[in-house]
């Protein structure tokens, strides 16, 4: 009885949200922490890979919703640097699922895929897949999709500083000269997301209310939306709620 009522009420509520969002401010760049796949699978007594596969399917839904809403860029945190230390019995299938998903994104033919993370930490085949898909989709004009794989915010900042120092060492710049001119823009130019707008909205699923290292540098002025649903259960109505919450806020950009 309750599930039948939900099937009737939910579409009505979704249409109401859609009407509310007409003319509302839309985030240009949305970051999503895809959390809860393992716990979702555990609730069904299934292996973690079952949850990761269901979560991969939900990504395709999300990107369609973003296109409909007018979002220009999405960053999806699929695998953290911490995740790389998991048991191989879970990690190997997870990386295979990510590779398959990235290929599916490329096959859609309308999204530009960009790999974000320390790709040198990944198995060679996974790294090759990400790099090849990035090259293959580079010229597409549609939604820009960052896939954060082997990603950690602290690692990104460390890599950016390392790249900056290496660049200036090649120019013969002394440490004293660099220290005298260094500013935040110099570091930003060496991030994995260099040249991209910072995320306006960051969504995290599964009820956890923390960033966990996601886009530490870029999210300084982002708005945050935390959703109770595990990622495989994330629905269009949840996404629309996130957009409504974003539109209702007065952005102060640190002021």
TL;DR?
This protein is α/β, with parallel strands linked by helices and 255 residues long. The protein has 9 helices and 6 strands, in the order αβααβαβαβαααββα.
Write the layout of secondary structure elements.
Blueprint: H1 2-21, E1 29-33, H2 37-43, H3 48-69, E2 73-80, H4 88-107, E3 112-116, H5 124-137, E4 144-151, H6 153-171, H7 175-181, H8 184-188, E5 201-204, E6 223-226, H9 236-248
Parallel strand pairs: 1-2, 1-5, 2-4, 3-4, 5-6
Helix pairs in contact: 1-9, 2-3, 3-4, 4-5
What is Rg?
19 Å
- Supply the number of helical segments: 9
Strand order of the largest sheet: 3-4-2-1-5-6
Q: In terms of per-residue confidence, which ranges show pLDDT below 50 for 5 or more consecutive residues?
A: none
User: Regarding quaternary structure, how should these chains be classified?
Assistant: single chain
Specify the structural class: alpha/beta
Helical residues, percent: 40-55%
Strand proportion? 5-15%
Cα distance spanning the termini: 49 Å
Largest sheet: 6 strands, parallel
Report mean pLDDT, rounded to a whole number: 94
N-to-C order of helices and strands: HEHHEHEHEHHHEEH
Give the overall shape.
Answer: globular
The count of DSSP E runs of length 2 or more, i.e. the number of strands, is: 6
């Amino acid at each position: 009885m309750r599930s039948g009522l939900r099937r009737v009420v939910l579409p009505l509520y979704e249409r109401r949200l859609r009407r509310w969002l007409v003319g509302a401010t839309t985030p240009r760049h949305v970051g999503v922490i895809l959390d809860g796949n393992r716990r979702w699978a555990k609730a069904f007594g299934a292996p973690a890979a079952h949850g990761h596969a269901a979560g991969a399917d939900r990504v395709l839904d999300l990107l369609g919703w973003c296109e409909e809403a007018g979002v220009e860029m999405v960053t999806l945190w699929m695998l953290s640097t911490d995740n790389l230390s998991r048991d191989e019995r879970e990690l190997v299938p997870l990386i295979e699922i990510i590779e398959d998903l990235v290929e599916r994104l490329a096959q859609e033919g309308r999204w530009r895929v960009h790999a974000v993370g320390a790709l040198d930490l990944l198995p060679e085949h996974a790294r090759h897949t990400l790099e090849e898909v990035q090259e293959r989709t580079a010229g597409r004009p549609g939604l820009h999709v960052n896939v954060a794989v082997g990603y950690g915010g602290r690692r990104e900042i460390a890599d950016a500083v390392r790249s900056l120092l290496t660049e200036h060492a090649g120019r013969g710049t002394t440490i004293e000269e660099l220290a005298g001119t260094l500013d935040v823009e110099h570091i930003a130019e060496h991030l994995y997301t260099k040249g991209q707008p910072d995320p306006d909205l960051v969504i995290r699923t599964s009820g956890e209310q923390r960033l966990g290292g996601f886009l530490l540098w870029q999210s300084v002025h982002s708005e945050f939306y935390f959703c109770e649903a595990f990622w495989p259960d994330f629905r269009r109505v949840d996404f629309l709620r996130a957009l409504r919450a974003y539109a209702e806020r007065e952005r102060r950009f640190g002021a």
